Amino acid sequence: MESSLPGLEAILLVGGQGTRLRPLTLGTPKPLLPTAGVPFLAHQLARARAFGVRRIVFATSYKAAMFEPAFGDGAAFGLSLEYMTEESPLGTGGAIRNAAEALDSGPGDPVLILNGDILSGHDIGDQVRAHLARRAAVTLHLTEVDDPTRFGCVPTDETGRVTAFLEKTPNPVTNRINAGCYVFTRSMIDSIPCGEVVSVERETFPGLIKSGELVLGYADRTYWLDVGTPAAFVQGSRDLVLGRLDSPALPGPTGECLALDGARISPEAKVRGGTAVGARAVVEAGATVTGSVLLDDSVVESGAAVTDAVVGKGARVCAGTVVRDAVIGDGAVVGPGNELRHGVRIWPGVELPERAVRYSSDV
Ligand code: GTP
Q1: Ligand 1 test: best mutation among 13, 45, 205, most atoms within 8 Å of CB?
Q2: Is residue 239 domain-resident?
């Protein structure tokens, strides 16, 4: 890692419902979905630790009880972890305010805030140093995307000061968008109303800009991905397996395929393109799996072709089926000879009969 800042505290926002990732998030919150063989958050925790973060408060809400069993007190990750749960979801700003009750930091200290669904290669230490050097109220990581129309865009002046926080628009004024990693001066968190639903994007940041506080942009062009949609989730896993983003949490060497313990891949199968194969998952002879996520105990039968897809826990893709850019829910069975494409989602437990053929809507 580029640079380290010992002692930094962080809040990790992990309470969202992950609606865009359904049905994967019906049983598991987005930050715990297996990604390149480990819960998504493991990659973020490992990167944060590598930059000197030692204490992280999880801001939980949706399926809150599932986080502590997964990460415990954090000792296994070289971290100290705390869990703060909202009685009802407080939005991003309300969640930060609520979680801050568990921080040790003083009013002038920097606090790192991470969205729990972002993979980023940026230098967190450098972002914090930029924040401290300019005595900013908040410093936002900004990234550039080809199509900013899907995001709020964040223009800055020549000194890096954020001048506006703009909602999605068909004519964005800049390609720079909010990358979901902030450094707050602690006192700015304390100024968010307590116990209320607040959005940092819609209320806190525009409010700080309006009142003349220094909201700084930290822009860079390293690897960045919001894994909030099925296609992006699969891409994130694939990029980690292929080594396009370095992660200390990857449970094996980078390469075309990462297979967890007990996975059985026939020597006559082709598994490539950064595919992750879960524990006890089976890929039979003559099957081709490319750039996909096969979760634990799933089966891809002989002659099936799975590309850019997620196959849920215990799900089965039967012989001769084509699955491309699709999500198969946990325990679902896709009968022989089907063809699933174009973002189709099969709900958990659904059994598609043989050659129910081409699905263009969710089942
Ligand atoms: P979608 O429903 O698919 O939009 O996903 P999401 O629920 O994760 O929402 P979004 O991607 O906008 O959230 C950004 C980050 O904030 C994610 O890490 C969420 O887990 C987190 N988040 C959003 N709302 C809340 C909330 O009310 N409480 C907490 N604790 N976290 C939240």
Answers
A1: 13
A2: no
Residue 335 domain boundaries: 256-352
Residue 198 and residue 328 in one domain: no
Number of domains the chain contains? 2
Q: Are 313 and 297 in contact (CB under 8 A)?
A: yes
CA distances from 3 to 43, 61, 246, 347 (A): 17, 32, 15, 44
Cα–Cα distance measured from residue 96 to residue 320, given in angstroms and rounded to the nearest whole number = 49
Q: Rounded CA gap, 7 and 339, in Å?
A: 52
Is position 211 within any domain?
yes
Q: Which among 180, 205, 226 is the end of a domain?
A: 226
pLDDT digits (tens, 9 = 90+) for 115-174: 999 999 999 999 999 999 999 999 999 999 988 888 879 999 999 999 998 877 788 889
The angle subtended at Cα 288 by Cα 283 and Cα 291, nearest 5°, is: 95
pTM of the model: 0.93
What are the distances in angstroms from CA 60 to CA 30, 191, 226? 12, 21, 19
**Nearest Cα residue to atom 14 of ligand 1:** 115
Show the tokens assigned to 130: 């930029």
Domain assignment present for residue 136? The answer is: yes
Ligand 1 centroid from CA 61, angstroms:
9
Residue 282 falls inside a structural domain: yes
